[in-house]
Amino acid sequence: MKVDSGAPIRAVLYGLALLYLFLDLFVFKGPLQGALKDSDPRSEKAVAEVTARGVAARVYYQPILLTQVDWAVRDRLWKQGRAAAELTADELFLHRLAALDRLFDEHFLRIKVRHNLAEISVSPEKLAAEVRAFKARFENEQVLREALAAQGWQGEEELIARVRAKLEQEAYLERYVALEIPESEIRSYYEENRHHFTLPERLRARHVFIATASGEKSDAGARQELEEVRELLRDGRDFAQLAEEFSEDASSRQRGGDLGWMSRERLPADFAESLFALSGKEPSLVRTSLGWHLVEVLERKPARERSFAEIRQELQVALANRQRENGVREYLQNLRRREGNHLEIFRDVLKRPWSL
Fold first, then answer.
1. For the segment 211-270, what is each residue's pLDDT rounded down to a tens digit?
2. Where does residue 212 rank: exposed (0-12), middle (13-18), buried (19+ CB within 10 A)?
3. How far is CA 136 from CA 132, 177, 320, 325, in A?
4. Is the pTM of this model over 0.70?
5. CA pair distance 206, 270, nearest whole angstrom
6. What is the C-alpha to C-alpha distance for residues 226 and 221, in angstroms, rounded to an integer?
7. Integer Cα distance of 202 and 267 in angstroms
8. What's 138's DSSP letter?
9. Domains identified in the chain and CATH numbers
10. Is 206 helix (H, G, I), strand (E, B) or coil?
11. Are 281 and 296 spatial neighbours (Cβ–Cβ below 8 Å)?
12. If you ran DSSP here, which 8-state letter would residue 80 be given?
């Protein structure tokens, strides 16, 4: 049997290599250990590099840019009728934290959706409609491209992919928290809240209107004009024809002056007070801050409580929406608790000036 004369040498070399690795990693903290530490995404060097690029947070080490956060904040403020320029530094920081919550949820949901794609579908029509709606928020294509670039999105293809992902997430959540509301629960809610389901007193009326608010016609002149219209009515002229001929209310004139069914809450206070005080069907003159009205009350309906049969469908939808919202919120909270160890927030980045 031939003996391998090089085996002892190789064994010594392997031993020395292992000894070097041990000493480098665990004793002397040498260059190999330093390289490994630097390659760790949790290392100070790695964190410094990503925060320098404007990374505000990470989910499973995937970056969320400050510009993405600020776009989410801007969208949130827009819905509230506000702008970022109105915020103090502390308010901006809190809005960014709130926006991050939503972005974290979206990241986690993307992971869930990825594992359930076979059970989720988004129609091409719905996708196209959502993309059009997103684009409509921007003044022109150039502004849209700048907005996509600010969020780190690579053009329209990524926009479509992200919109699709959003729709898939919504479909996944709808499937996960889909609810059937028991009939007994709908009935119970109705009985407990029936005092809120009252229809107010309503009436249907028509009018001929002459404006005085602009100052083009005097108060006396407008009243005199309607007195003459009332005389024409007494002579047998048709109210609808007179409204089309004389009324200055463009919205009702083409309907013969018909104002439809109205409750007090829908009307200016001075008009409601005079209108609901009228008795009988004889056309009457009514003065408001806008001008003079020749009004005829056509029908009245007293206030009444809506029956369960009338309101059942509305209640079912409302209760389902409420339970769905609660279910989604609970699901996302549980998801966050399970995956929370994989979240990182870089607060110093969130305290930077507005990025858009």
1. 998 888 899 999 999 999 999 999 999 999 999 999 999 999 999 999 999 999 889 999
2. buried
3. 6, 31, 31, 27
4. no
5. 17
6. 9
7. 11
8. S
9. 49-178+331-350 (1.10.4030), 198-305 (3.10.50.40)
10. strand
11. yes
12. T
